[in-house]
Write a structure and sequence with these properties.
Helix 1 crosses helix 7. This protein has helices at about 30-40, 55-65, 100-120, 160-175, 195-215, 225-235, 250-265, 265-285, 290-310, 315-330, and strands at about 25, 45, 75-80, 85, 120-125, 130-135, 140, 150-155, 180-185, 220-225. The chain has 2 domains: about 25-265, 3-Layer(aba) Sandwich (Rossmann fold); about 265-335. By secondary structure, it is of the alpha/beta class.
């Protein structure tokens, strides 16, 4: 891209993100964006097991569960539009059957808890200080699931509350993984519900909270990646926002991801990521056909292509198998 780079790469962190080592991403939908980029370059990325989470208190509760402090409480499940959802999860983790929904949620927690224990990098993206609390008990919810507004009160977290939530997140991580690099970032998504001034105050509080944590912590493996600053300074034009004028476009996501790569990939990882992206673009291509035989032949061809690639790069075998499974069974958005 030909934009002038105002925000420089993060110094001293090249080689931090590597293939074959688990990466856990938790937080706002921007975690989904970066996570999808990592998955498409065949990193072992576990992306948002709870679905997008936006406020620090909900993210802190998620890490408590991931650190093994209990199962998903059945009391958090509510029925919405024929599906059971939890106030701790995004609605994409749901089911029409209550027990099945709870089972999905606990499986997601258990699988990502294993990732957390072995992760080399944990990436946490904060979105907002705005929280919704259940009026009957005062608990903060991760998602309102379009339930009646009368069920909730709304408030904004103070700087002290944000900082304490971040300390709790780091404590949960360190209770099961002493070695992972913990990267905090702030989502560039604009929260128009706050109004322009309210959005800036919310982002500023998150930034100050992260800065306070890093400055006060003796942990050398806690740092910050400036995704928000890249959007505000390098991409300060509305053409980098989607039609809703809130979310970054795919072009903006790729720009920020390129800075992420420059900051955290070494030369070998950059080359391998490029080869992996070439492969996954081929695997993601779909032939429009209604023939079961043609679909089976296409699947076999993709499997052979993946096997040949991982024969050359064995440490990508697990990530490639997962990507191929998604392509053949569910489909994947490719940035």
């Amino acid at each position: 891209m030909d934009f002038r780079t105002v925000v420089p790469p993060v110094e001293g962190k090249r080689g931090l993100v590597r293939h074959g080592e688990p990466i856990l991403l938790v937080g706002s939908c921007f975690s989904d964006n970066i996570g999808s980029c990592l998955v498409s370059e065949l990193f072992e990325a576990d992306v948002n097991p709870f679905g997008p989470l936006y406020n620090p208190l909900s993210i802190s509760k998620a890490f408590e569960l991931l650190a093994g402090r209990g199962e998903v409480p059945a009391s958090t499940l509510v029925m919405r539009d024929g599906a059971w959802v939890s106030t701790l999860f995004h609605s994409r983790v749901s089911d029409a059957d209550r027990d099945a929904a709870l089972g999905k949620m606990n499986r997601a927690v258990n699988e990502s808890a294993a990732t957390l224990r072995s992760a080399s990098v944990v990436i946490i993206t904060l979105g907002t200080t705005r929280v919704f609390t259940l009026r009957d008990c005062g608990s903060v919810v991760a998602n309102c699931h379009k339930l009646p507004g009368s069920m909730f009160d709304v408030r904004y977290l103070t700087l002290e509350e944000v900082t304490e939530a971040l300390r709790s997140i780091l404590s949960s991580i360190r209770s099961v993984n002493a070695e992972a690099e913990v990267l905090f970032t702030v989502s560039p998504l604009r929260y128009s519900e706050h109004g322009p001034h309210g959005n800036q105050l919310s982002k500023a509080t998150l930034l100050l909270g992260i800065d306070s944590l890093i400055r006060s912590s003796s942990d050398p493996k806690v740092s910050y990646f400036p995704a928000y600053e890249v959007m505000m300074d390098d991409l300060r034009d509305y053409r980098f926002y989607a039609e809703d004028m809130k979310h970054p476009t795919q072009q903006a996501v790729r720009y920020i991801y390129d800075l992420f790569k420059t900051s955290y990939f070494d030369e070998e990882t950059l080359r391998l990521a490029g080869d992996a992206a070439s492969l996954t673009r081929r695997l993601a291509h779909r032939t429009l056909t209604a023939s079961p035989d043609a679909a089976a032949r296409e699947a076999a061809g993709k499997t052979a292509l993946a096997d040949a690639f991982t024969g050359r790069f064995p440490k990508l075998k697990r990530a490639c198998a997962r990507y191929l499974s998604i392509i053949l069974n569910d489909g994947i958005q490719h940035f």
